[in-house]
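Entry
Fold in token form

___
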Amino acid sequence: MSPLETNSARTSARASSSLLRCLRSRGGGRTKADGINISLVGKLPLNPAFNLLGKIGTTYSRTDVSSDPTSGVVAGSEQDFGVSYGIGVEYAFTRNWSAALQFESHDMKFAGDRNDHVAATTLSVRYRY
């Protein structure tokens, strides 16, 4: 168990980090968003096989928007910290193997003083050793 992780019979919490990248074409140009996320992740067992997951943290993001001047989309670059959060469920097949379905949202700042949510839904298979 790492120093950032605590366990009890009922709940557990750990620190998590991840890298993000989002590319999108719009307004005759391109939107690029990169970020690094640091979060606290909590796990609440619902029964021996199912866990409810929750996370809250911050995302440092860098965004770059290019566009056609007639599109109405503001072009430019921004960087900032924003709130991130997520929820999910985990199903344990065995003591070592599980699968998790999670939704995450990251607040990112874009050109023109515009904040936007960048969301991701993930399905993962986990092995614990």
